């Protein structure tokens, strides 16, 4: 029986980790997985040492505050790795923690696979030397990453983006059923809000969104709905929006598919929205100090994955001070009022989907790992 230590630290990593484990179990049902993940990985047979809920921190300052806890997690994982002697390590995104622990796992003589690359194209290429030395195989999900890594001498392979599989295989509830079961009017356009997957994000970002969408809802007679995360207490949302707007859990893809426009916190959701061809505005706000640190470190002029993959600013990004009710209101108003602008956005979003390869990323990554071990 092969033993595999797998580590994901965020909701998107758990989604892709769960699908990767599922694909690997299809090829070899005897595989034993243990590590850090969430409900998707757990449902696919991963024995969780820590749940991602305990590791989801936003911004540099928040991470610094939790450094003692992160050191404790790292120490425990390294101890368990020594005891269980895994045949392979799979790291999924979450670069701050994963690259740090990878150095120690490499010293243990482990074969380390990295699935979904750290965004070194955004944060600068200083980490690429470390990756070349300690990562056995880097499996990337964007075509431009393969070129960059190959030129730097990293053992790399483009496997395609796993979100293509997730969206392709998803069973959508009908628009009629979705609207009726969530108290939405079938005669009104839907404005969907995705305020993030962490408590800090929601508390920072949702109040400004709420002020904007109240005005938009009344002016354009819209349905408005908020995407909720089950691991976050519903009261966190209700403290901000009260009972005025439905909070819909575990139905992100219906929200994106049936919405006319969206307001989306920067992250994986922006790429999901692009793949579902939803015109949207990107919002992001963190503590002022975290923002200043990030602004000095980030090497590109875009933060949304949709814009990064497109190579241009297709969708508007409202960051920090620009993430306010007035700006959000104006940008969404432009999408609702200007059908030509909306259609142009949809066309550009469709091009993003076409650039990400074919479905089957999880299966290709699974085959690659099992071949190597």
Task: Please characterize this protein's 3D structure.
The model has no long low-confidence stretch (mean pLDDT 90). The N and C termini lie close together (12 Å). Strands 3-2-1-4-5-6-7 form a seven-stranded parallel beta sheet, with helices on both faces. The protein has a six-stranded parallel beta sheet with strand order 10-9-8-11-12-13, with helices on both faces. It has 373 residues and is α/β, with parallel strands linked by helices. It has 19 helices and 13 strands.
How is this fold's topology laid out?
Layout: E1 3-8, H1 11-27, E2 32-37, H2 39-43, E3 46-51, H3 60-65, H4 67-84, E4 88-92, H5 95-107, E5 112-115, H6 120-123, H7 128-134, E6 137-140, H8 143-151, E7 156-158, H9 162-169, H10 175-181, E8 190-194, H11 199-220, E9 223-228, H12 234-241, E10 247-249, H13 252-258, E11 261-265, H14 268-275, E12 280-284, H15 288-297, H16 305-310, E13 317-319, H17 325-337, H18 339-354, H19 361-372
Parallel strand pairs: 1-2, 1-4, 2-3, 4-5, 5-6, 6-7, 8-9, 8-11, 9-10, 11-12, 12-13
Can you tell me the residue ranges where pLDDT is under 50 for at least 5 consecutive residues?
none
* Spatial order of the strands forming the largest sheet: 3-2-1-4-5-6-7
| Overall strand count | 13
Q: Give the end-to-end Cα distance, rounded to a whole number of Å.
A: 12 Å
**CATH homologous superfamily title of the largest domain:** Glycogen Phosphorylase B
Number of helices: 19
Give the CATH topology of the largest domain. Answer: Rossmann fold
Overall tally of domains? 2
User: Into which percent range does the helicity of residues fall?
Assistant: 40-55%
- Sheet-strand content, in percent, reads 15-25%
CATH C-level category of the largest domain: Alpha Beta
Q: Could you give a short account of the major beta sheet? A: 7 strands, parallel
Question: Could you tell me the radius of gyration in angstroms?
Answer: 21 Å
Average per-residue pLDDT, rounded, comes to: 90
CATH architecture of the largest domain: 3-Layer(aba) Sandwich
Which structural class do you get from the secondary structure elements?
A: alpha/beta
Shape: globular
């Amino acid at each position: 029986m092969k033993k595999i230590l797998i580590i994901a630290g965020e909701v998107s990593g758990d989604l892709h980790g769960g699908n990767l484990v599922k694909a690997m179990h299809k090829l070899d049902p005897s595989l034993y997985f243990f590590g850090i993940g969430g409900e998707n990985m757990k449902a696919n047979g991963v024995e969780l040492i820590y749940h991602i809920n305990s590791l989801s921190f936003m911004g540099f300052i928040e991470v610094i505050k939790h450094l003692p806890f992160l050191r404790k997690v790292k120490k425990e994982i390294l101890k368990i790795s020594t005891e269980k002697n895994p045949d392979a390590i799979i790291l999924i995104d979450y670069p701050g923690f994963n690259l740090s622990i990878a150095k120690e796992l490499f010293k243990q003589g482990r074969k380390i696979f990295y699935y979904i690359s750290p965004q070194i194209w955004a944060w600068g290429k200083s980490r690429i030397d470390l990756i070349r030395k300690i990562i056995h195989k880097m499996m990337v999900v964007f075509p431009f990453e393969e070129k960059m890594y190959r030129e730097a001498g990293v053992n790399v392979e483009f496997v395609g983006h796993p979100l293509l599989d997730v969206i392709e295989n998803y069973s959508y509830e009908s628009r009629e059923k979705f609207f009726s079961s969530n108290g939405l009017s079938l005669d009104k356009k839907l404005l969907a809000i995705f305020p993030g997957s962490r408590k800090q994000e929601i508390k920072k970002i949702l109040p400004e969104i709420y002020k904007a969408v109240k005005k938009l809802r009344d002016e354009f007679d819209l349905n408005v709905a908020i995407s909720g995360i089950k691991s976050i207490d519903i009261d966190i949302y209700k403290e901000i929006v009260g009972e005025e707007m439905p909070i819909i859990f575990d139905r992100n893809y219906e929200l994106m598919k049936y919405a006319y426009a969206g307001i989306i916190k920067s992250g994986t959701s922006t790429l999901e929205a692009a793949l579902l061809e939803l015109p949207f505005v990107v919002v992001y706000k963190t503590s002022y100090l975290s923002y200043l640190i990030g602004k000095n470190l980030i090497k590109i002029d875009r933060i949304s994955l949709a814009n990064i993959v497109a190579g241009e600013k297709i969708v508007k990004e409202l960051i920090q001070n620009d993430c306010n009710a007035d700006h959000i209101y104006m940008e969404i108003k432009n999408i609702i009022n200007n059908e030509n602008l909306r259609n142009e956005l949809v066309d550009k979003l469709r091009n993003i989907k076409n650039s990400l390869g074919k479905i089957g990323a999880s299966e290709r990554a699974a085959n690659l790992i099992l071949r190597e071990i």
